[in-house]
Amino acid sequence: MLDAAARLFERDGPSCVTMEAVAAEAGVGKGTVFRRFGDRASLARAIIGDHESGLQEGMIRGPAPLGPGAPPHERLNAFGAAYLSFLDRHVELLLEAEGTTVTWLASSVYAMYRTHLALLLREGGCGESADYLADVLMAPLAAPVFKYHRQVRGLGLAEAIEEYAGLVARLLDSSR
User: Fold this and answer.
1) ω before 72 within 30° of 0 (cis)?
2) What does the pLDDT profile of the chain (176 residues) look like in tens digits?
3) Are residues 31 and 55 in the same domain?
4) CB-hemisphere CA count at 13 Å for 86?
5) 121 and which of 115, 126, 144, 168 could share a cystine (Cβ 3.0–4.6 Å)?
6) pTM
7) What's the CA gap between 99 and 103, in Å, rounded?
8) Same-domain check for residues 86 and 2
């Protein structure tokens, strides 16, 4: 079912794919797809999960600067660049998977990234402000914000990564 959904999402875009189409492509009944995933957002989340797991593995055990062993500012910048590149490849799927902004902010995936950033910000000297600033650093990484910057403002991926690094620098400089 996941392979069928991934093919349809890639070909037609996640917002144009119905659960019925996934069932037909997978050769199963519609009820089977609904029982397994519940809705299109959960199906999209399942598809994006492998890609996200690779990013998370890199953060936890990968080589520096994304993984351990680099100074906080380098790790924050590496995370921003990695996540913005991830968004560049998967924004439509993430928009479908995230559902509403409130759903995204309450998700375990968001909590993992937010916690990672807060720890790095504390190491970088942000103290008690680290939790709030982690949310600030996550804001440009929300799929709707990313899509707006790319499509409406015309910001290229390299520019987005550079702007994110500038935000990190300003946050860490102001905390000193």
Assistant:
1) no
2) 999 999 999 999 888 999 999 999 999 999 999 999 998 888 998 999 888 999 999 999 999 999 999 999 999 999 999 999 999 999 988 888 876 566 778 888 899 999 999 999 999 999 999 999 999 999 999 999 999 999 999 999 999 999 999 999 999 998 76
3) no
4) 22
5) 126
6) 0.81
7) 6
8) no
Same domain, 103 and 54: yes
| Whether residue 16 is found in the same domain as residue 78 | no
CA distance 47 to 152: 27
Greatest alpha-carbon pair distance for the chain in Å reads: 59
b (16+ CB within 10 A) / e for 83-105: bbebbeebbbbbbbbbbeeeebe
CA distance linking residue 16 with residue 94, whole number of Å: 14
Distance between CA atoms of 101 and 143, rounded to whole angstroms?
Answer: 9
Q: Is 92 helix (H, G, I), strand (E, B) or coil?
A: helix
Tell me the CATH number at 64. 1.10.357
